[in-house]
Amino acid sequence: MSDRRRAFVTGGGRGIGRCIVQMLARDGYDVCIFDQEDFSGSSDFVRQIESLDRQCCQVVGDVRDARAVGDALESVAGRWDGLDVIVNNAGIVRDQVSWKMTDDMWQDVIDVNLTGVFNVCRATIPYLRQSGGGAIVNMASINGMRGKFGQANYAAAKAGVIGLTKTLAKEVARFNITVNAVAPGFIETDIVKTMSEDAKRDAVGEILLGRIGTVEDVGESVVFLCSDRARFITGEVLRVDGGQYI
Ligand code: NAP
In the predicted model, is pLDDT for residue 190 greater than 90? Predict the structure, then answer.
């Protein structure tokens, strides 16, 4: 791997992804954000990263679009002469009990949360190989490990991400590429604002450490798995859930 560290983060515009971008920049990475919403022109966020003397760029696109993903990676890897770290963070929820879940609700979540991760991983491996190795971190969820009422689509997609992560780890270890997943529990983001107080209380009641997780709690684990400190870890699923799963 080169001394310069270059990262590509999907869904880096808000929530957990935004925190990951800030932490990677803090740790010395140049970061490209792949996100649906265009905020690059006016964003304090981008200026904040650049004030750390790191480069920050945004490519507007949809992880479901394999061609857009391929073009974005080609352009940023070309500009930066390679890539070292990929974080597949983009994700959506469309919750409903299975018997009321529409085809679109099912398919949208599978397409973004699972096919989107595959699209990025597949397109990215040649660039990581060119760089002599690297790290891929995929965002799973504890609900992909335990199931969740009303989340058949989401739990299936996140379980798929775990299977994909382990398979890729086996396939690309020979290229000095690690592939791991982070499985958050209940984390304070926009999603939480839409929940009722009862639902929040029930969720917190499951968490051994007695609080909702923060985006920083997840970000620290992601940047660890991206770093050389985690160089002998691959095919792992790291739960960041305050003990909620157990
Ligand atoms: P969030 O605040 O809703 O942010 C999701 C990000 O993904 C946004 O930047 C969004 O872009 C982007 N995105 C969505 N669809 C996309 C697409 N098709 N192509 C490109 N980008 C897309 O979500 P979050 O809570 O931070 O969650 C981040 C990840 O952690 C997700 O994979 C989620 O499943 C996982 N996770 C979250 C929790 C939690 O409690 N929050 C728990 C477990 C796992 P726009 O702004 O343009 O929509």
Answer: no
